[in-house]
Every structure is written in structure tokens, then in C-alpha cells.
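Friendly challenge for the regulars: who can give me the C-alpha cells for this chain first? No prize, just bragging rights.
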Amino acid sequence: MAWLGVVASRDILWDSSNTSVNGSSTPAWMGYAGCGISVLFFGTNFAPIKKFETGDGMFFQWIVCTAIWLVGLCVHAVRDFPTFYPLAMLGGFVWATGNVMVVPIVKTVGLAQGLLVWASCNLLLGWASGRFGWFGLNPEVPSDTIMNYVGVSLCVLSCIIYVFIKSDTGTASQQDDYSSILNHTDYDGPDNSISDSSILSDQVSILTQEDDIYSRMSSRTKKIVGIGMSMVAGCLFGCAFNPVIYVQDNYLPRPPHPDAPSQNGLDYVFAVFSGIYATSTTLFIAYCIYMKNKPRLYPRVILPGFVSGVMWGIADSSWFVANSALSAAISFPIITTGPGVISALLGVFVFKEIRGVRNYVILLCACSCAIAGTVLVGISK
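First reply, four minutes later:
Bragging rights claimed.
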């Protein structure tokens, strides 16, 4: 699926210097295209977490962030190596800190519900920062403020409704991994049997420990921990663009001076992604030290994690385009709400973590609010 995003975003990368819209050189249609790409890939990029065992998530997040940095490097090269602003790396630090919480969130409240809760906090903080000029940013007022407010309210309402869905996270993935380890451990001969048995024992022990962490929690505790971490992560995600927008709004000289900071968000992607990689690597090294050089590594998650990171990098790069073309007050409600609908559909039809007529009715109401809110926000531009 990732190649579709690469092809779709190619024109955005190469042609983002056309007609002027919203004080930038990015046309509005590219902004809406960026929203579409972001919604699609943000809604699906964490699916590998449910397919493979990721343990405590530290190794997985480092693989994901490595792939993200490589996407940023490609964007940087395509954009002809624009000026690097170190302050933009702060956005990467903020995002990577929130990203560490993703795996625990998924294991406590599920992918669909976790994503939708952090999306609501992400939406509110990101939208308010752009709309009202928080954190030193310039306010971005939509042409139809009433419609924008109504659309944002519907988007938030959809996220609140999602909280009432009871998701079944189960332990099927752990059981599958036990069977996988038992059935696929290769023995080359008598000389290798002892060492292989030791490895087998260590792997099963690790998986059992991971299962015990969450099995000891009551349903209510899981809900509190998962929702709480989702809210914190969402607030961090909502601040990730602020350093870049601050540079664009406040650094001197101002446009149209040739040395003014670029108003094209793609020119800051590499700096942000470098902040993500530096932070995730630092956290992973600290984790290895804490584990006394015995980190919990899951080789089967390397390729899925890399694909997930590429998808996320494409989605976030497209979000930068949407911010430049439409403003954060427009792009945030659309991009933070849309992926929730996609993840909810995955939760119903793929992962089977949302079941029952009651949950389906709640889901239908939430999706209806999300779609209506997204449409209103989009046309309020």
C-alpha cells in the first residue's frame, strides 16, 4: 500500500511551488490531496502492531523512526537540500515522546479506540494553536468561522462517542507467537540443541512477562491507563508542528526577502524527522541500559515496522503540504479525524476488536459525526 502514497505524493513534492494560496506557494488542491494521503496512511500505518508481537514497543518504535528518518532524507534531497532549522527538531522530539506510548495504548484499549482518543486531543490542540495563535504563532482565521467551529465540534463529538465502544484486545497475538516459536525453532543437530533450547526458553519467558503485565490489569485499569496515555500522546502530537510554524511566522528576514524562511512545509520535514530519529535512538539506548544490555528484540517486526515508518513519513510529509496550503485550522480537524474512521473500520472488519450491535450503532453515529465535521471544516476554508 505504501507505494500508492509515494506515487500520489510525488507531484506534491515536485510541484509545490505554483500559485499562491494562504500566503504560501502551495495550491489548495494539493492541500486537499495531502489531507487525503495523510488520512489514508495515518489510519493504516499502525496495523502491523496487531499482526506481530511488539513487546514493550521500544524496539518497534526505533525501527519505525529509522524508516521515518529515511523518508525525510528523501524529501530533503528532492527539495534540493533547503536550509536546516534546528528549532524544527523540537517538533520531532515532542512527537517521538508521544509515539513511545502507542504500543501500551494499543495493548490496553485497542488500536481503534486508542487512536481515536489521541486524535481528539491532537485535533483540539493543533486546531486551537493555529486558529488562535497559541505558542507564538500567527492566528489563521477561516473564511467561515461558524462553519469551522461547528465542524470541529462534530469532529470532537465523534471522538467522544468512540470512547463508549467496548473493544476486545484479547491475547490472540501472544498465543500465536507462542505457537510460532514452538513450531519454527530450527535444530541443526545435537550440538545446537542446548543453545537453541535456551533461546526458546528466553523467548517464551519474554512473551509470558509481556502478557502478565497486561493480564494483571483489570478492565477498568486498562481503560484508565489506555485513555490517559492516549490523551497525553494526543497533546504531544498536537504540538509537533508548532516549532516549524513558529519559524515560518517569526524568523527574520520576512518574505519576500530571498533569505526569508521557506513557507513550504516540506522544507522542514528533514529537520523534524531528524528530531524524531535522534529522540527515538536516545530513548532506545537508555532502554538498553535500563535492561542491562538485554533489550527485548522481536526480529519479525523489523519489516512491518519499516513499512509502518515509511507510511507514516509519507503521511506526515503530506500533512506539511496541507498545512502550507490550507492552514492548520483546516488541516488538523480533517487529518486527525479521518484516520479514526479508517482505524475503526479495521477494528470491525480486520482485527475483530469491535463487535456487537450496540458497538456497531455507536460506531455508525461516531463515523457520521466525523464525516460531517470533516466536510464542514474542509469547505469553511
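The chain has 16 helices and no strands. Residues 190-215 form the longest helix (26 residues). Your move, everyone else.
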